[in-house]
């Protein structure tokens, strides 16, 4: 085993992850020859990613020709980290970023003359449109690759080799992905950049109270009540709402469905129509239904100011609880586990009782 190489990779991963703290990381392996991904996408915590077995697995795949990519994971939103692919890179670019208060938290040398920079803009997830607009602004400002500005673009993981044939050294070796800079922290002008991204032309319809524009109306046909109800009901069935909750909080469900629709590129006017026509018993007890819809759609379109506002769709927290904010029904496997554990304890106590009964008599 190459212990020296293993510990160099471990050290590089540890430095990069420490500068990009998050709950989960998406790891993807792409073969340089076929451009096909290794089967499966892996979601790992920082601790799991730095386990010896994980690192050995990734090093073997890397030697087989797979490039190793990473992205902080926030399901159908951006985790608050924006990648700028500087290909090729001007040596002064990083200093210009710092001078403009767009400080990168991580800078990698993916091969000689080529850099990737991660900029931390938010501690709460960003909507895809906002993250993409911010990535495009940064790429234009610093000469980055405009093809790498989408909200879920992955960057390279340090400590592995760049398997692209055109990046090989004169001796035929694959260059290592090295850390140039790693320091956790939000960019000093993160708020300004996010505000500028929200004012991009593509998001103008959101700034104006999420009203219909002529462009949106012409692009999307009117939503019928049947279509809206079918769309709303489809999400309820997907999350098993009726089975899990006797009395769902429809306002929370409205917000969730709006976020899902936005992540799929649904226009704001159509999102409002789906909520108005498809949400059960709407307008319920809302005194101003139109204002309620505007506020719900605005909340769905823009990130909350704190992590506690983040909702996880796969958990469907629709009934409030004084403990964790929301209750979830106990999973069957958990119930079975508890019953099985109690049964084992009873059998052990019964065996001990019989043993002492034999000893005494």
Name the descriptors:
globular, Methyltransferase, Methionine Synthase (B12-binding Domains), Chain A, domain 1, Alpha-Beta Plaits, 361 residues, five-stranded antiparallel β-sheet, 14 helices, 2 domains, four-stranded antiparallel β-sheet, 15% strand
Strand content: 5-15%
**Rg calc:** 25 Å
Number of domains: 2
Q: In whole angstroms, how far apart are the ends?
A: 60 Å
Which fold name fills CATH's third level, the topology of the largest domain? Alpha-Beta Plaits
Folded structure, characterized:
It contains 14 helices and eleven strands. Strands 1, 2, 3, 4 and 8 form a five-stranded antiparallel β-sheet that branches. It has helices at residues 3-19, 46-49, 52-63, 93-99, 128-142, 190-198, 204-207, 214-219, 225-238, 241-244, 250-263, 268-278, 289-301, 332-360; strands spanning 25-31, 42-44, 66-74, 77-78, 81-86, 106-111, 114-120, 155-156, 178-182, 319-321, 325-327. The chain has 361 residues and is α+β, with helices and mostly antiparallel strands. Helix 5 crosses helix 6 (190-198), helix 9 (225-238) crosses helix 12 and helix 11 crosses helix 13.
């Amino acid at each position: 085993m190459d212990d020296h190489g293993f510990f160099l990779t471990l050290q590089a991963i540890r430095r990069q992850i420490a500068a990009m703290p998050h709950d989960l990381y998406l790891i993807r392996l792409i073969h340089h020859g076929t451009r096909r991904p290794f089967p499966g996408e892996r979601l790992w915590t920082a601790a799991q990613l730095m386990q010896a077995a994980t690192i050995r697995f990734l090093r073997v795949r890397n030697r087989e020709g797979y490039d190793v990519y990473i992205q902080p994971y926030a399901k159908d939103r951006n985790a608050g980290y924006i990648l700028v692919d500087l290909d090729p890179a001007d040596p002064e670019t990083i200093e210009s970023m710092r001078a403009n208060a767009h400080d990168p938290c991580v800078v990698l040398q993916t091969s000689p003359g080529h850099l990737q920079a991660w900029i931390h803009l938010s501690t709460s997830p960003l909507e895809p449109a906002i993250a993409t607009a911010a990535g495009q602004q940064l790429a234009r400002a610093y000469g980055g690759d405009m093809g790498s500005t989408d909200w879920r673009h992955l960057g390279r993981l340090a400590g592995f080799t760049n398997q692209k044939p055109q990046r090989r050294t004169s001796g035929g070796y694959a260059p290592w992905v090295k850390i140039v800079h790693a320091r956790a922290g939000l960019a000093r002008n993160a708020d300004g950049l996010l505000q500028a991204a929200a004012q991009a032309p593509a998001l103008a319809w959101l700034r104006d109270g999420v009203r219909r524009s002529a462009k949106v109306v012409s692009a999307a046909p009117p939503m019928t009540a049947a279509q809206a109800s079918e769309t709303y009901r489809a999400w309820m069935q997907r999350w098993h709402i009726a089975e899990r909750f006797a009395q769902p909080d429809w306002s929370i469900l409205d917000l969730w469905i709006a976020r899902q629709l936005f992540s799929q590129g649904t226009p704001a006017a159509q999102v409002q129509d789906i909520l108005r026509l498809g949400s059960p018993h709407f307008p319920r007890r809302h005194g101003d239904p139109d204002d309620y819809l505007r506020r719900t759609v605005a909340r769905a379109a823009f990130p909350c100011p704190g992590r506690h506002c983040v909702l996880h769709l796969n958990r469907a927290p629709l009934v409030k609880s004084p403990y964790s904010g929301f209750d979830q029904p106990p999973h069957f496997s958990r119930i079975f586990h508890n019953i099985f554990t109690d049964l084992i304890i009873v059998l052990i106590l019964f065996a001990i009782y019989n043993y002492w009964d034999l000893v005494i008599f």
